[in-house]
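Deviations from the work plan: none for this task. Representative record:
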Amino acid sequence: MKKTIFVLGLAVAFPLVMNALDQAFYIGFGARVLIYAMAAASLNLVLGYGGMVSFGHAAFFGAGAYVTGILAVEGLRSAWIAWPAAVAVAAAAALVIGALSLRTRGVYFIMITLAFAQMMYYVFVSLKAYGGDDGLSLPGRSTLGFGLELGDELTWYYVVLVLLAAVLYLLHRIVHSRFGRVIEAIRENETRAAATGYPVYGYKLACFVISGAIAGLAGALIANQSSYVGPGLLHWVQSGTLMIMVILGGVGRFWGAPIGAAVLLTLEETLSGSEALGQYALHWQLPVGVVLLVIVLYAPQGIAGLIAGRRRA
Amino acid sequence: MLRVEGLETAYGASQVLFGLSLEISEGEAVTLLGRNGMGKTTTVRSIMGLTRARAGAISFRGRRIEREAPDRIARAGIALVPEGRQIFPNLSVREHLVAFADNRAGRKDPWTPDKVFDLFENLGKRRDHMGNQLSGGEQQMLAIGRALVTNPHLLILDEATEGLAPLVREEIWRCLERLRAAGQTILVIDKYIERLVRLADRHTIIERGRVAWQGGSAELDADRGLWHRYLGV
Amino acid sequence: MLELRGLTKRFGGLLAVDQVDLAVKDGEIHALIGPNGAGKTTIIAQVSGSLDADAGEILFRGRDLTRLPQHARVKAGLARSFQITSIFRRFSVLDNLALAVQARSGSSLSFWRPVAGEKALFDEARAIADEVGLSRRLDLVAGNLAHGEQRALEVGLALATRPKLVLLDEPMAGMGPEESQRIIALIERIRARVTVLLVEHDMDAVFRLAERISVLVSGRVIASGAPQEIRANAEVRRAYLGDELAAG
């Protein structure tokens, strides 16, 4: 509980501090971190708690973004319609992809989710009516009503924060519910879970759909963040980025995804723009790779695991 | 042949062996006895290099092996039939045996895959089945066969009769007796103590990671108090 | 309680279970013995529903289960234990058992209420732990239990789903004499409320516990009857028991 209040306080204070420091530019960066934290948290549900290594989570993230983008271009900018639509479409995509992929296991599951995501990537690349390769610029951010102007960076940041907090709370409830225990049990020992009386396939699919829906919401937000959607959002590199965030932060750790998103994006931001690195700043992924290597080798529970471990010791 | 001195082994923070010593001479059949959880399997794992000993010395045929990797120890001529079988699910029965066939002790009349099929008729019938298509008992036979075809100097069997039908169990005992008569050095862990008393020369009882008793078959057979106290019989 | 009619399973060219007829009566302990590879575990897998039947019928309390999925059979009152310990290794002992209890009490499609607050679930899990002798190990991670304790948990997981019939696949495997005694005592305690189909190679246990024994050889039942009859059966001696044990 203390940890939650601390993190929440930090997130609430962040834009105010940036404003005071005259670094308002970073408020947008902060919102991006929050959105990726949501997407990574959705992946952590299937990967960390469910033990399903989905290598195609960008498909749901991108689907949510494109639904928002296409609706906006067609003149439908209300968040009350666009965002639920994004969630619904992403959930439907997860239902179809999950229903087929979850018949396989291990490496096959990884490959088939990757293949589905790449298929969707190429669908959007060839969707000339909505920008194809070049993507799609949105006329502006969604409208929310209540006098809230999402175009204002500070308002936008707090709306995203409220949504992330709601999603994390939902995930927290799920993970500790009966359903969450069954999901973890299936990860631990699928054969035994089945013999104990759980229809394993159905539970995994439900978990996959919930995760896809949340990724869809994150997608709707990322479309708004930069008022742009492009097929790059569905590319497998995007799936890889989400996975790296989860691994960095801690697979199956509740705070793993937010920590991973914050650390990875901060590294990217500081290293790629670093003047000290000069021309080498282009290769900012290299030190990130080293960090990832160290984490995987010496802290398989990720940064969240390190923090928890230290506290216990 | 094998000398273990002052062996200490731990899994993380929990220490299992506390200065265990043990000696096996060429051609001897020796047992490790004791209740579950007392350190029998850990002793064997330490000898095999599968769990690194924290302290102590292990020498095998004059060579120190406590810091060596398991594959080198195996090639030096120790073969383990591990607890839990550890069969390769995607290798056929035949492949299991062919892949490990070797004559590490330089025997004149070495074990071959065909001889294993003579010993275990069932395995012969299933020679093209994959490891994961075998029943539990067949997997156990295969694990024994896999150790035999390496023709080791020292054969270690950790609960090798677990899950075997009485007739097959009897066959394994007879096979071990024949091996012993032929001069094979054997270290065996099993729960059928009456049978072990007949098979082996010497016995070591382990209690909480320490040697509680060592002695010959006649002494063990005579002292039922030992059975009761340390083996729960 | 359980009746198998012409149950058959083929793996490629191998006829693992060959038209098996078998009846387990209400309240009895029925042992299924036979040589390695005779098809005992395959039958358990077919009855519990993790393997399909190629032919034949599985009747449970008068109901045809043959085409029912595994989870529905658990709901109907069937549970199994595994020959190779199959537990939730990173869960605590209590969580292991609570999860199994949960499978039979109420819906698990509950996403919101914290399961930790469900007292009834954990009370029942504690009672099962007590029954299988693990009440002093509740908070220990199951993977850290000693081998014999893991085997006890294995049986506990099957019992926690409140079965009418429990299929025990070599529950004594890898146990020392005292641990075996404990499992025998446990099976004797539960016999009043649960019917047991027991696969086991420990003949002391089989002849002490079983009211009836069926002998499976190469996928076929070659004999079925009271322990004395089985012990005296020449074919059973030749195929499985050997002379030494049969005499004992």
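The CA atoms of residues 79 and 166 of chain C lie 5 Å apart.
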